[in-house]
């Protein structure tokens, strides 16, 4: 989901690179129940204990620091109503969108099943029947529909209404593991996305993003510095060359609003052969020389004959090889349940920014079943971004891939080479907020292509974030990447402030030794807030809380749905029960 630019997803070619069976990383969920809802301020008490810990592909354990299971139906996400999320109330003027985002489009429901092809072996016939899930999902629902009231359409200057949920300035985190489970609206035109966005920017508030999206450059390079007198543009607004930046920002440290897309979706008109994309948006971009032409594949990646995974090795540093794109990217996929991955999906980003992407296709059931999208994010110089779908490795960007890129040309007369260099970009280290939305994309036909599939429904079963104990970094104002004072002092860029701000909801927790503006060890100060209770006591309290829930709501549908959800967590991926009677296609939530 690019916030300021055009999209790349229409450009996925049908030709997929040949990739053979991939190796699954060790992305298993840990099962040790640990303390405890009481100690984790952002955690939803309804998260099953089995998900209190997760283990990344390197074997490192991470503890839950945030979750939302969406298990209470009928939730209201209007600004001020929820501590984790704000449902945006604003017309979207990015990407030629025809959508007004409104809180009315978003609530929580019980999702009891999906419309599936009546005859799966005959996708040509589009007849669909309702098929109930074995156990319903309690889920967030974002609905996209035409605005039927002409006066409303005129007032908001848009023809469709839809939803965008943001944790901006409420919950932010730096590094760790994120998982979101979701299913998507059927039909071309819809553009659902689950993404992370640096808190110095705010999605669809373009004044805040100008000159920050999607910069990840900390060092000084005058080429990219936005001069105060220049008109706003694509240069970096908070530059590493500035010795005295405003609002408590650190001197000589470039900042940005980077975008990491857990997933963006493009379904087809009839739900067949849809695709997913996972990506990092990054500025500044590498020299044109290395950028393949639109629709062309990058040169020089080869599948590993043993694993089938695609490793991207060239160019060697400074080598003058055309169209080779980034080095060291790794791609997976093409294994059970996850089809082949198209390296970079043959779209490379707008001129000034690079889109490092895995395109995965074809999927025939994006609107039918939930998939879990996972990002493992180790920030810093030795770090990486690693994407998985249902536990299957898809894509990895190691920090080293973002190193300096140089191309030199020999001048004909005196032989002195002329070089173009993109400096080393930083693997994102900014505090990130979470965004969940459905846009309508003009690039893939827009609303006219949705083939009557209105209203479109995006459903999210859960959002969970874990971090290792040593690197717990929760809050929108980390001492080494502050955002709070900057947002306060530039409030006019950010629209209606989020209420309540994260600072009023939960303690911030930052690693020891992170640099504060005044040089103190803010991490050490904040860390005490992490575990005010002993482990055993916290477990006890969590047990009491769980007991209280059952006692209060007894045999209520909410609790039943929650218990079913826990059972379902162990049963996936076989999500369906028996094929139902199409007349049972009452998709209405039961519990509203
Ligand atoms: C996927 O892997 C299989 C082997 O497991 C291979 O035969 C097939 O060609 C691969 N498909 C693609 C599109 O890479
Ligand atoms: C949600 O909350 C807002 C403000 O608290 C209120 O104005 C609105 O009517 C509520 N919406 C629903 C559907 O209850
Ligand atoms: C389903 O489609 C297949 C392939 O077109 C066809 O052979 C089969 O008879 C169909 N089954 C039913 C029950 O219509
Ligand atoms: C309404 O939208 C159009 C294009 O979508 C835009 O050019 C125009 O400025 C908008 N008007 C207002 C009042 O925002």
TrEMBL record:
One of the GO biological process terms: cell wall organization
Topology with respect to the bilayer: Single-pass type II membrane protein
Signal peptide annotation: 1-21
SUPFAM superfamilies with a match to the protein in the record: Concanavalin A-like lectins/glucanases (SSF49899)
Region: Disordered, residue numbers: 229-254, 568-592
Domain GH16 residue range list: 55-471
Main localization category: membrane
Record field: transmembrane: 537-563
Family of this protein: Belongs to the SKN1/KRE6 family.
Record-linked PANTHER family: BETA-GLUCAN SYNTHESIS-ASSOCIATED PROTEIN KRE6-RELATED (PTHR31361:SF1)
Protein name: GH16 domain-containing protein
Source organism of this protein record: Diacronema lutheri
Organism lineage string: Eukaryota, Haptista, Haptophyta, Pavlovophyceae, Pavlovales
């Amino acid at each position: 989901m690019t916030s300021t630019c055009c999209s790349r997803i229409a450009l996925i070619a049908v030709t997929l690179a040949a990739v053979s069976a991939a190796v699954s990383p060790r992305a298993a969920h840990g099962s040790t129940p640990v303390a405890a809802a009481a100690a984790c301020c952002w955690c939803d008490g309804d998260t099953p204990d089995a998900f209190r810990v997760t283990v990344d592909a390197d074997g490192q354990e991470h503890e839950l620091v945030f979750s939302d299971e969406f298990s209470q139906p009928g939730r209201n996400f209007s600004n001020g109503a929820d501590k984790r999320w704000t449902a945006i109330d604003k017309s979207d003027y990015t990407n030629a969108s025809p959508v007004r985002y409104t809180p009315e489009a978003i609530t929580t429901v019980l999702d009891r099943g999906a419309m599936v092809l009546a005859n799966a072996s005959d996708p040509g016939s589009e007849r669909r029947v309702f098929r109930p899930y074995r156990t319903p999902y309690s889920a967030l629902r974002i609905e996209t529909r035409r605005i039927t009231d002409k006066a409303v359409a005129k007032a908001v200057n848009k023809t469709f209404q839809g939803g965008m949920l943001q944790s901006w300035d409420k919950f932010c985190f730096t590094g760790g593991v994120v998982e979101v489970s979701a299913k998507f609206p059927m039909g071309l035109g819809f553009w659902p996305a689950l993404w992370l966005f640096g808190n110095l920017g705010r999605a669809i508030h373009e004044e805040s993003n100008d000159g920050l999206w999607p910069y990840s450059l900390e060092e000084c390079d005058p080429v990219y510095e936005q001069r105060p007198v220049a008109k706003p543009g694509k240069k970096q607004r908070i530059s590493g060359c500035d010795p005295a930046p405003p609002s408590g920002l650190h001197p000589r440290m470039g900042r940005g609003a980077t975008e990491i897309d857990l997933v963006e979706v493009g379904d087809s008109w009839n739900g067949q052969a849809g695709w997913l994309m996972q990506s990092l948006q990054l500025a500044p971009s590498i020299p044109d020389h290395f950028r393949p032409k639109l629709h062309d594949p990058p040169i020089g990646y080869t599948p590993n004959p043993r694993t089938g995974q695609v490793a991207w090795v060239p160019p060697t540093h400074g080598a003058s090889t055309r169209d080779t794109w980034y080095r060291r990217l790794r791609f997976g996929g093409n294994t059970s349940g996850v089809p082949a991955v198209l390296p970079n999906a043959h779209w490379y980003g707008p001129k000034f920014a690079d889109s490092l992407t895995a395109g995965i296709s074809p999927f025939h059931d994006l609107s039918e079943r939930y998939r879990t999208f996972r990002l493992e994010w180790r920030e810093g110089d030795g770090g990486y971004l690693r994407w998985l779908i249902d536990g299957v490795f898809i894509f990895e960007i190691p920090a080293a891939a973002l190193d300096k890129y140089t191309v030199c040309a020999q001048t004909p007369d005196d032989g002195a080479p002329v070089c173009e260099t993109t400096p080393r970009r930083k693997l994102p280290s900014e505090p990130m907020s979470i965004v969940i939305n459905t846009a309508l994309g003009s690039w893939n036909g827009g609303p006219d292509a949705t083939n009557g599939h209105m209203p479109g429904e995006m459903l999210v079963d859960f959002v969970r974030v874990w971090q290792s104990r040593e690197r717990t970094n929760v809050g929108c104002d980390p001492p080494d990447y502050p955002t709070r004072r900057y947002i306060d002092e530039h409030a006019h860029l950010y629209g209606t402030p989020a209420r309540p701000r994260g600072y009023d909801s939960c303690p911030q927790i930052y690693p020891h030794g992170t640099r504060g503006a005044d040089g103190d060890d803010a991490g050490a100060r904040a860390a005490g807030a992490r575990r005010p209770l002993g482990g055993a006591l916290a477990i006890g309290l969590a047990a009491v809380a769980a007991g209280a829930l059952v006692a209060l709501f007894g045999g209520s549908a909410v609790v039943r749905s929650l218990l079913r959800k826990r059972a379902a967590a162990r049963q996936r991926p076989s999500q369906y029960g028996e094929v139902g009677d199409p007349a049972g296609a009452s998709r209405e939530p039961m519990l509203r």
